[in-house]
Automatic annotation (TrEMBL):
Enzyme's top EC category: hydrolase
SUPFAM superfamilies per the UniProt record, alphabetical: P-loop containing nucleoside triphosphate hydrolases (SSF52540)
Lineage of producing organism: Eukaryota, Fungi, Dikarya, Ascomycota, Saccharomycotina
Helicase ATP-binding domain sequence ranges: 146-323
Gene Ontology cellular component annotations, sorted alphabetically: intracellular organelle lumen
Protein name: ATP-dependent RNA helicase
Domain Helicase C-terminal: 390-569
Protein family per UniProt: Belongs to the DEAD box helicase family.
UniProt keyword annotation of Isomerase present: no
PANTHER family noted in UniProt: RNA HELICASE
Amino acid sequence: MLLPVFPKSRLPAIFRGYATEKYGGRFNKFSKKRISPAPSIKRQSKPKKARQHEFGDTLRHGFGELNGLANIDKIDNVKSNVGVRSRFLDYKILEEVRDFFTKEIKQYSLLYQHQKIRESKQTEDNPTPTDIQKLAFSEILKPRNSKNPYELRIFSIAGETGCGKTYAYMIPLINNLKTDQMNKVNDGDKKKKIVEYNENFTKTQINSVILLPTNELIEQLYDVLKNISELGLTVSKLNFENKVEDLIALNKPVDILVTTPVKFNAIKNYAGSSQVYRKLVSSIKYCVIDEADTLLDRSFLSDTMTSFHQISNMSGMVKDLVIVSSTISKLFNKNLNEVFKNNNIIKICSKRIHRISKKLDMRVIDCNMKPFRNSKMNALKQCLYSIYCDNTEADLQVKKVLVFVNEKESVSKIYGELCSDDAFKGYEIYKITGENSIEDRMQIMKDFNSNDALLEDALSTNQKSSDKTVKIPNSNIKLNKSSNNDSTSQPRLKVLVTTDILSRGINFQQTSNSVLYDIPKTTADLVNRVGRVGRIGLPGRVFMLAAKGESKGWVTGLPKAVKNGTPLA
Ligand SMILES: Nc1ncnc2c1ncn2[C@@H]1O[C@H](COP(=O)(O)OP(=O)(O)OP(=O)(O)O)[C@@H](O)[C@H]1O
């Protein structure tokens, strides 16, 4: 079932032919005469070395010095050699922990979900650790200094978006918690003894804390840990809906507390007496600061550091602090070195950091060219239509597209435009900004992530066409159209318009398409927005819309840089 994006009556003359001809053949005919090749094509003929140099320079200029990404080659003592061990079995991980996580990865990994749908036989394979996981396991699982078992070790883990950093810190953390738990009980039936030990607790005791910047990420991580009770461990979250009082009243060990720095700092106020507070936090031995490039930037730094100082001051027992990030900006690197200057930070970094996955098909659309008439909205509508019509993800019932903008005001504008356009009647359009209540945000994320078929009658106009391709006008972008135009098998489209609020850390379920409506303000924003698709080596597509004056060298050079694996720093 096909939808005309631009109703014929409201279409500028230049569009009319395209709309009536359903984009395909007519576009090809027009494009030969009127459309000059996209600038990115012209630039591709430049000598490789000169272009890469120009790309790096212009990118830095484009995004400004302070927010630029650090050059990893210039950071001392970074551990990035993966080594030869290639299986979970090769690392000193407790057998039950290893079995638990390999099972979890197979069941819930985006990679395995993807394969399950496309090639069900592949799901028989056993997962292997990703590069960042191998690096992290090699360092964090090293035996501690036996002379000083409570020495604080600080690790910084940095790797490209979607490379599996969560398990890179989670598996060693669970391994440590489980080992500590086993050491607390005597030999014999350890499982039974651990249950008895936990039942005898009269006060809440937190054993480890994971700090995250947003409620969405807390929810996501809590979901990752939902089966952890199988290992005899407990997890609690402190977010918008959970009260600190309830945590205090639990009266049992909390092996992992997932929360934000602000919520964590609030525990002190609610604890009432310093004795209660001390009891709560004095058993924290492991602390993780995830999405640290956000939590150690200007807006969060003071809350994050208050949390960490509270943990280490009150307990003096923190053994491992793990700081995790997908980019290393100059500011982050500066803050990291300043804040932890007296400690040796063990820096673990994947070689692919600051690079965009080569599996991503990255395209730039110049909106200044006809027929978009410098209207990003027109270009966006055409993108959505083309994604909807092409034959990718043919086996899915629902295709999903993320649309990222810089300012929350633009979210409502775009959402309003798409909702009020009859051509988008059958699409499910969502928006999320910081202005939505947290409850709303959670519900919208749930709806967008669900893969249920949309209402049968959602798409009511069925237009048959024999064209095999759809082309985004005035670009070199041609997409194959679904070969099957039968209304029951045509996928449906969900579109989520949002800001950077959702650009960090979120695993969107079965989402392979993204439109960067605005040019991101910093390289870190670019890397994170793009990184919501094409995760863990999966294929994906990103369309970047460039208006008049935005088609600078680095913008048009981006697709080539992605293909060449050029670091964006
Ligand atoms: N060893 C593995 N094999 C297969 N899939 C994995 C493996 N490790 C993690 N995954 C899956 O990869 C996906 C992305 O992982 P994760 O969320 O940890 O990425 P990330 O590096 O933290 O990304 P970001 O920088 O965006 O936060 C998840 O669906 C996870 O289940």
